[in-house]
Amino acid sequence: MLQFVISKEKYSLCLVNPSKEDVQDVYLKYFGHRVDRNIYYEFEPIQMYIDTLYGESYAILEESNSSNLDTTFQYEVLFVREEGVVFKKFLRKKLENIITLDSHPLFTTSVWKIEETTSEYIDVEDIIQIVAHDIYASKAPIQDNIYQQLIRRSDLFEEFFDNLYLEMDSYYRGEKCNSLKKWEFANFIESEYGIQLEHSEGSEIILANCVALMMKLQIPLPKMAEYFMEYII
Q1: Which of 24, 38, 70, 95 stands the most exposed, by the fewest C-beta atoms within 10 Å?
Q2: Domain boundaries in the chain?
């Protein structure tokens, strides 16, 4: 799922979602270099965020890329699925390692498909454990081992966690602080597990964080309750 392609008609760089399933919270970055007569030129990294990339659609990232085809570029993309977070890397060595697709269901002309070099899956439980390291923290625990491992792979993970903690704060004291989902979650764990939460600021933070995790990571309520029992309580 998700492809980087260059249209051979307009030389535009595109991020493609060929499946029927929408993809949420897409973080991407690309950067590269060119060598001209033994002189090394480095391009500034471009980092972007797409809230939703709908199924069987694509986003144009850069128009008229023809002048940059004699370059080497690396591309990274991170996105959320129901099973967890997916991280992929792609590489284009000029036009040496690309795949030419004479037809594509989403384009009227042929495209160059950029080679995927790495695909990793980060389990939801890893994300839960990072947050549970200090459930009351307002920022990601930079000393957490799992967090350190992730941000060493790509700084896209740092942006992902920054946005996750902003979402948790929104459910705690921001525009989503009165969300009914917090009380639905509280009622569920009280009825299913006999947990009685105190009416305190600490409980408010925990409920906000659990609901934000549930929504951002597409976790069903019963499964989030299991994570709560295992990692948070």
Answers
A1: 38
A2: 3-122, 124-232
Beta carbons within 10 angstroms of residue 184's beta carbon: 13
Write out pLDDT tens, residues 105-133: 999 989 999 999 999 999 999 999 999 99
User: 3-122, which class in CATH?
Assistant: mainly beta
Which residue, 70, 125, 124, is CA-closest to 93? Answer: 70
> pLDDT of 127-171, one tens digit each?
999 999 999 999 999 999 999 999 999 999 999 999 999 999 999
- 106 DSSP 8-state letter: T
206: enclosing H helix or E strand = helix 201-216
DSSP state of 155: T
Q: What angle do CA 136, 167, 147 make, to 5 degrees?
A: 60
0.70 surpassed by pTM: yes
Contact between 128 and 144 (Cβ < 8 Å):
no
